């Protein structure tokens, strides 16, 4: 019964850990959902995450789920697609990340300017 009483957002943290900086996108607790706080229907990033079997793959990283011209990796601080959940949780930056499922939020391209992958 106590599991049923847990707040809904508690389950989303396990998904947020599977992508770089998934817990650092400002104002977002449900990264893969149209409502970034309360969840509900999935956004394109969430659908792409399902397609990637909940793994941060190179293809998932290089996708532009929200169609804003930035790859998911660029938006989440992993422009070179180096992050591997539990094995290599390294990112290039954590401040300035943006929402890869919402085209109205973009990261500053200067963050990856000069990075050679």
From TrEMBL:
<protein>
    <recommendedName>
        <fullName>Temptin Cys/Cys disulfide domain-containing protein</fullName>
    </recommendedName>
</protein>
<dbReference type="InterPro" id="IPR055313">
    <property type="entry name" value="Temptin-like"/>
</dbReference>
<dbReference type="InterPro" id="IPR057626">
    <property type="entry name" value="S-S_Temptin"/>
</dbReference>
<dbReference type="Pfam" id="PF24784">
    <property type="entry name" value="Temptin_C"/>
</dbReference>
<feature type="domain" description="Temptin Cys/Cys disulfide">
    <location>
        <begin position="10"/>
        <end position="102"/>
    </location>
</feature>
